[in-house]
Amino acid sequence: MGPVVLSTPAQLVAPVIVARGTLSITTTEIYFEVDEDDPSFKRLDSTVLAYSEGLHGKWMFSEIRAVFSRRYLLQNTGLEVFMANRSRHPTHSLHPKWDSI
């Protein structure tokens, strides 16, 4: 892990859940760490969480094939990360707080 270049509040949007946390970018990786102390996260059903990927995600730049910005109502709202193995990982979107970037 290299030094953190950027760290910002973000949300991981997945089927059935929206998890608040922190998106960090280093010189070699992208990280997402869910805020397990967030009240909305504590209310989520543990059965649903068992099927949710990327809540504590780490993606190496060498494994990333493409990153696309996603928009809603003409505003940047998220990032979608595609991996070299041709999968989307996470199978959801990362929604950073854009005004802090």
What does it look like?
- By secondary structure, the chain is mainly β.
- The protein has a single domain (4-83), classed as PH-domain like (Roll).
- 9% of the residues lie in helices and 53% in strands.
- It has 2 helices and 7 strands, in the order βββααββββ.
- The chain has helices at 39-42, 46-50, and strands at 4-14, 17-26, 29-34, 56-60, 64-72, 75-83, 93-96.
- A hairpin with a 2-residue loop joins strand 1 and strand 2 (17-26).
- The chain is globular.
- The two termini are 21 Å apart.
- GO terms for molecular function: protein kinase binding.
- Keywords: WD repeat.
- One of its GO terms (cellular component) is membrane.
The CATH homologous superfamily is termed Pleckstrin-homology domain (PH domain)/Phosphotyrosine-binding domain (PTB)
By oligomeric state, this entry counts as single chain
Nearest-angstrom radius of gyration?
13 Å
The helicity comes to: under 10%
Beta-strand fraction estimate = over 45%
CATH class: Mainly Beta
In the sheet with the most strands, the strands line up as: 4-3-2-1-7
Distance N to C terminus: 21 Å
Average of per-residue pLDDT values = 77
Annotation, overall tally of beta strands: 7
CATH architecture name: Roll
Structural class: mainly beta
Helices and strands, in N-to-C order?
EEEHHEEEE
Regions with pLDDT < 50 over 5+ consecutive residues? none
Note the overall shape.
Answer: globular
Number of helices: 2
Main β sheet profile: 5 strands, antiparallel
Return the domain count. 1
